[in-house]
Each structure stands twice: as structure tokens, then as C-alpha cells.
Design the sequence.
């Protein structure tokens, strides 16, 4: 079965909502499923058909699946480094930023990372490896899950009238959003680094 035919079958299945919970959860420690594409397409379709019950169910599925996946990644980060993908051990700009802010601003670290490609895996695994308390992590994860679900539903609602819920157009839109988000973060990081390097000149010392 072709990928888009499979996606269309999932969208029309009565198991769409529980499948959404599972896909978003598994997408935490093993980001290989097109959970965001399915969620965007399902939301766009529900907006077109004005199915409020399905929209509510999808929102709860996205939020609960996000928290479950975060907790699984946090647990794997604490207990094993071998079961996580190599991207969880990356040492790039995103990873450094998350580690620098994880204990000072855990909510901000998890929320910001959640909107970047690979950021969810990096932030949740780092929280487990660095020993961020589970209760603190759970609160930050809940805020992150709600923020991400609201963001995805806003995008899905905007795409509904434009795409008519067409999976191919939703895939293209999702890819463009990922590129724009990553680019914006990279620009912000570069500007921040430039400001730090070219900070205010030291005040002259008084003579004698």
C-alpha cells in the first residue's frame, strides 16, 4: 500500500483516535512515525466537516500521547543510553541550549525544544540523563504537550479550508513549518551569540 493510501486509510479508520495516542507517544523515544502529518490531516479534515466531537477527541489524544511519550523518553534517558537513537546524544546548538536551561527553566526548555525537529527527543532524554525530578518534568511536559497540541490544532484549522484535508498538501505544509521553525531558531541563536561576543566595552579605569 502506498504511503498516502495508508494515511488515508488511517484517517478514515474508527481506530483513528487511539492510533493517534499511540503514534504521538511512540514518536517521543522513536521519532519515526508521521504523527504530526496524521494529526494535521485529521484536524484539517475534521475542520472541513465541522466534526467537533472528533476535534475534541484528537486534541485529547495528541496531548495525552505527548505526555506519555515524554515520560517514556525521560525514563529511557535515566536508565539506558543504548535504547535511544543517536540523535538523543547529539551535542549541537539545540542540545547545549536545553542542557543549559533545563534546571533553571524546565518549562521553557521543554516547550521551546518541543517545536524543533528532534527537540522533543533531545530535551526529554537530557532531562532523564541529568536527573531532572520526575514531578518537575511531568509539569513541564504537560505544559509542553498542551502548547504543542494547541499549535498543531491552530495549524490544522488554518489548513482545513486551504487543503480540504488532503494528506499530500498537509505533508508539504508540515515540512515547510519544520524548516521555518528550525531556521528561526538558528537565526535567534546566531544573533544571541553575536550579541554576547560584541558585548558592551569595559568602562575605562580611572587614572592613578
Sequence:
Amino acid at each position: 500500500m502506498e504511503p498516502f493510501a495508508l494515511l488515508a486509510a488511517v484517517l478514515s479508520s474508527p481506530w483513528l483516535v487511539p492510533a493517534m495516542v499511540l503514534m504521538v507517544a511512540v514518536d517521543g523515544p522513536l521519532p519515526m512515525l508521521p504523527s504530526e502529518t496524521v494529526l494535521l490531516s485529521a484536524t484539517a479534515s475534521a475542520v472541513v466537516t465541522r466534526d467537533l466531537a472528533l476535534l475534541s477527541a484528537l486534541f485529547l489524544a495528541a496531548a495525552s500521547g505527548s505526555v506519555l511519550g515524554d515520560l517514556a523518553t525521560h525514563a529511557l534517558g535515566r536508565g539506558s543510553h543504548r535504547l535511544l537513537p543517536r540523535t538523543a546524544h547529539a551535542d549541537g546548538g539545540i542540545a547545549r541550549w536545553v542542557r543549559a536551561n533545563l534546571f533553571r527553566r524546565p518549562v521553557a526548555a521543554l516547550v521551546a525544544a518541543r517545536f524543533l525537529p528532534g527537540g522533543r527527543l533531545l530535551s526529554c532524554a537530557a532531562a532523564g540523563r541529568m536527573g531532572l525530578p520526575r514531578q518537575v518534568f511531568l509539569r513541564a511536559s504537560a505544559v509542553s504537550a498542551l502548547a504543542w497540541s494547541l499549535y498543531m490544532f491552530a495549524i490544522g484549522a488554518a489548513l482545513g479550508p486551504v487543503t480540504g484535508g488532503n494528506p499530500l498538501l498537509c505533508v508539504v505544509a508540515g515540512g515547510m513549518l519544520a524548516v521555518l521553525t528550525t531556521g528561526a531558531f538558528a537565526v535567534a541563536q546566531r544573533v544571541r551569540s553575536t550579541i554576547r561576543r560584541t558585548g558592551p566595552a569595559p568602562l575605562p579605569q580611572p587614572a592613578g
User: Anything to note?
Assistant: The chain has a mean pLDDT of 80. Residues 3-193 form one domain. The radius of gyration is 20 Å.
